[in-house]
Specification:
By secondary structure, the chain is of the alpha/beta class. It contains eight helices and ten strands.
């Protein structure tokens, strides 16, 4: 008996499922010569803080892993190669009443399928301000906060998360929306969200790496099945950015307990083959892997120098 054909039943191809970023990352770094697998944060339970007041009366902030543009730190524009010089290592904040030029050249977003030409896809402040003006939320907190993309669990847990909590409390923040970009960014925001929830602040993460977020067990997660770097919606598509934020706000209101994931109905494209590309060693030649190893070593040295400075 012949096997049933996918098109007979309308099945999607097997690769059209959430990208397995943790396994891809392990395989990729092993292929370029780093044989000690990275230990991703893993919890089986999550804290959960219900909303203390309706969103229409709540003060909301953004926690981002994007970096302020600094013209002295090399190419940070659309399509720029990974730029270790642009990384930041301490929590920073910014005035939400001002415009900000935040970029993602310092992290491993999907450079093949993400244009990086519209910061609205990784920093939803414009949409949050619109939500405030429309009365959907009470107000936008006076500051947003930058969370360092730190591979060290200890630094994130013991230093960065408590610092972000302290600044949120100083600003009387009621709710935090966290927006990661790269794989490690997703882990960072998961650990920060867990810390905020344990200390009384409800959170929602808007992200694209489902396996990393759920492995770390967070209170609420809005999953957009998009290439990394587009957690807040499609580039140059304001309607998708507005819809993505609204879904996150709805999740804040409707989640009945921790580890609640909502998947956005939006699709990146009809062709899902983009999911096969990111750090997929099966599609990289030995020469390309060697080139990437050399570039990674170079950027690691740059980052080490900046961290020590």
């Amino acid at each position: 008996m012949s096997a049933p054909r996918d098109d007979e039943f309308g099945f999607a191809p097997d690769y059209d499922s959430p990208v397995p970023y943790m396994q891809r990352t392990r395989d990729y770094y092993a292929a370029i010569g780093y044989t000690t697998p990275y230990r991703w944060a893993h919890y089986t339970e999550a804290p959960f803080q219900p909303l203390k007041k309706p969103l229409a009366k709540s003060r909301v902030t953004i926690i981002t892993t994007a970096a302020p543009y600094d013209p002295t730190k090399g190419d940070q524009g659309p399509g720029a190669a990974y730029n270790g010089s642009a990384k930041f290592y301490q929590v920073y904040d910014g005035d939400t009443s001002q415009q900000h030029d935040l970029r993602i050249s310092h992290i491993g977003y999907d450079r093949k399928h993400t244009s990086a030409t519209d910061s609205g896809t990784w920093f939803p402040l414009p949409q949050l301000l619109k939500a405030s003006a429309a009365g959907r939320i009470g107000d936008v907190a006076p500051r947003f906060f930058g969370a360092p993309t730190n591979r060290s669990h200890r630094v994130t847990l013991d230093t960065d998360a408590p610092e972000i909590l302290s600044r949120c409390l100083a600003d009387k923040v009621d709710v935090a929306v966290l927006v990661p970009n790269c794989p490690v960014c997703h882990q960072t925001t998961a650990l920060v969200a867990r810390h905020l929830e344990r200390n009384g602040i409800p959170t929602v993460i808007m992200g694209c790496a489902k396996d990393i977020i759920e492995h770390a067990a967070v209170p609420r997660f809005l999953f957009s099945d998009f290439p990394l770097g587009n957690s807040a919606g499609k580039p140059h598509d304001v309607a998708s950015q507005a819809q993505t934020l609204e879904l996150a706000l709805k999740l804040l209101e409707t989640a009945s307990g921790p580890q609640t994931t909502m998947q956005s109905p939006l699709r990146w494209s009809e062709d899902a083959s983009w999911k096969l590309d990111y750090n997929n060693v099966a599609q990289l030649s030995p020469e390309e892997l060697a080139r990437r190893r050399a570039e990674f070593d170079k950027q690691k040295e740059i980052a080490r120098g900046n961290c020590a400075a």
